Automatic annotation (TrEMBL):
Swiss-Prot/TrEMBL cofactor(s): pyridoxal 5'-phosphate
E.C. numbers: 2.6.1.-
InterPro entries named among the record's database cross-references: Aminotransferase_I/II_large, NHTrfase_class1_PyrdxlP-BS, PyrdxlP-dep_Trfase, PyrdxlP-dep_Trfase_major, PyrdxlP-dep_Trfase_small
Any one GO molecular-function label of the UniProt entry: pyridoxal phosphate binding
Domain Aminotransferase class I/classII large: residue ranges: 36-383
Source species, domain of life: Bacteria
Keywords: Aminotransferase, Transferase
Protein name: Aminotransferase
Keyword DNA repair: no
Record-stated family: Belongs to the class-I pyridoxal-phosphate-dependent aminotransferase family.
Key word Kinase present: no
PROSITE patterns per record: AA_TRANSFER_CLASS_1
Amino acid sequence: MSVLSDRIAGCLDSASLVRKMFEEGARLRAEFGADDVCDFSLGNPHLEPPSEFKDQLRELATDPAPGAHRYMHTSGYPHAREAVACSVSQREGVEVPSSHVVMATGAACGLNIVLHALLNPGEEVIILAPIFPEYRFYIFHSGGECRIVPSKPDFDIDLEALAEAISEKTRAIIINSPHNPTGRVYPEESIDGLTKLLKEKSDELGRPIVLIADEPYRRLVYDGVEVAPVLPRYESTILVASFSKDLGLAGERIGYVAAHPSFPTELIEGISFCLRTLGFVNAPGLMQRVIAEVMDASVDLPAYKHNRDLFYEGLTEIGYEVVKPEGAFYLFPKTPLEDDRVFCKRLMNERVLAVPGSGFAAPGHMRISYAVKPEVIEKALPRFKTAFENP
Ligand code: PLP
């Protein structure tokens, strides 16, 4: 009998694909040496935070002012919330007051506290396949049900499929652009179509369907592509973002939730309550103070673009079918074999790690993270070729 609750034991079973990749990676490194293994399985930003971040961190860490390490207002330091509110208002073109910002322990925390605040037992949250697998567990922990809706073959939103999936049970939909695992940035027309559909469906239901825009990759876009702002298009929108990727701070756990100003303050009180009582208490204090000063700085974006181009061009030249990613740091090619798990095993024989698309509810694909040094991509391309030619 498991020492775990049935709920959690069940989660571990269904999360086992990604876990398995992790274990396989460790096995390969032990057998062949770390340098010979090309690991594209983890979305762990490899670029260092910008120098502005390190300078500010040094300065604030030695600030002698008393009280800097105490508890604070659950939603965060007023000046950090104000800085986020200014930045969000500027880029969205909607005035978001600091009262509608909650500092969070990364986007993962932001999503969890929003879902906890919104969901009644059994209410549905729609997520779009290919999915970010963790959403299923965030929704599960919040007492909701997950409804997966497929996207178009080019990974754009399939509005018809979405319209069919919305029912009286639908409480919210999560979108993520730039998208993990495909790198897709939804075009403006798709966001227009989505928000129009949500308005119509909300009117039919007599209550708003909440649109949660999960945007931790928002500033990781290439070739001048822009992420269409959602707040001006749909009032019942809650933005969730973090500095994990654009400032390279994934381990420091700092992000935020910003709600449309039309929401009553009750929503923010509920989200703050969940932040506190789920045990986060407040977002890390030192990080709040640092990012308040440096949130416009960025990791070396051209380095990610270089990797994207190198990998995309290399794979398409070999013959892989890939939708060109416009942002984030992932590629999501079709696998030459229909069975993505078998093909990823084949790649493992070449000491290359990619995650089967089945783990993202999109079989027949594989996810490749290019948050790695370009040398690893160069080393891996001939191996991708061998596996493609002899699958
Ligand atoms: N949402 C998506 C789509 C992600 O890919 C990630 C992390 O990889 C997160 C949320 C969580 O981000 P954070 O590290 O800021 O919690």
